[in-house]
Structure formats: structure tokens, C-alpha cells
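Help wanted!
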Amino acid sequence: GENVEQHPSTLSVQEGDSAVIKCTYSDSASNYFPWYKQELGKRPQLIIDIRSNVGEKKDQRIAVTLNKTAKHFSLHITETQPEDSAVYFCAASGLYNTDKLIFGTGTRLQVFP
Amino acid sequence: DADVTQTPRNRITKTGKRIMLECSQTKGHDRMYWYRQDPGLGLRLIYYSFDVKDINKGEISDGYSVSRQAQAKFSLSLESAIPNQTALYFCATSAWRDHTDTQYFGPGTRLTVL
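Answered by r_m:
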């Protein structure tokens, strides 16, 4: 089955700096890669996702890149702000088949003012 | 997301007790999921349901059972709770018809088994 590894487990950056979180997956059939943000005491919420037919997707300060050959994908946050502090989870599943959405173990991002 | 609700929000129980966690949604979604969150382990899928008559085991179904009473309701039961089932439990929903695969999570239930 699918296995998703996520690094680093914790990440501290200064406000305004960039943050990068990386994930690798094992199942080459996986086609859908979402990223969820979970603020302290809150529920996970989708912030961006990417499908295998594209290599990069951007939404304001957030971008995700996908390398299908290497089976890894990354979340990039530019111009970080204190409100970006949260736990970020990557996940992977087959296209239109979220029954096996497998999550990474999470990255705790701290943005210091 | 107020459209997905979970009850109770917190529960403390004793080893051996039967516990039911409930999830309701008003999003009209057909797919529902139960996850367990433990520190350092991320979110792990317990059970999922594509519609009322469809129930499937996830990664860690042992010790758990589920019931899909209606399209909008999906319950998770621990028949005989044990301390290592202490965790944060999330329900989630998604809509196949949307083809977006986005899962919407409930607020979570924090369960402590003594």
C-alpha cells in the first residue's frame, strides 16, 4: 500500500523567510496530492492540492511542486507570517479515489516575528 | 467547517466501556471517513463509507466498528475501549460528484481511555 514520508517534523523560520516541506510517496499509481493545515486545537483544512498532470501549482504565497519520477512533492510558503504557524500534512491517493488518502506524519511550522 | 459536526467533543471513559462517537454533516456529501490522530503519527484512516450501503476498513480498523445510519450520519464505536485508543478522532466528508476530492473535517472528538 501507499506510504507517505514527510520532512522535517519541525521547522522554525523568521517572519518573511520562506519555508519548504517535503514529502515522498511509494505508490507510483498515486495521482492526487493535497496539503492540509491544522492550527492549534482546530480541524485540518485543505490549503492546496495538485494532480499528477501538472508539475506546479500556486495560490498567492503558497505553491506545491510535484516530481512524479522521483515520487516526491513539496509545499513552498513564501513571505511567511506568524499566522502561518501550524501543523502541515501532506497526503497522497489515487485520482478521484480518496478512500485511501494516506497522510504524512506532519510538520510543525513556527514563524517567529 | 460548521457543516460537519461531531459529538461528543470530549470524552473520558474507562477501560472496557463501549463508546460511540457520532458524526453528522449537512453538506450533502456521499462519502464519509473516520480518522485517528496521534502525536507524531499524523492522520490514520479507520473506516470509510462511500454511501449508506458501503463500508470499508481503513489502515487501523481493529478494535473499531462503524455504522452509516443515513447519508448524513456516520458513527464510530469502540466496543471495549482500551487505553491505547486514547486519541483525537476526526470525521471527514467528501463528494464524489464534485470530483475535487477535498475532504472536509469535523471539529474532532478527544477521547481519553483510563
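OP: Thanks! One thing I noticed: Chain B touches chain A through 25 residues (CB under 8 Å).
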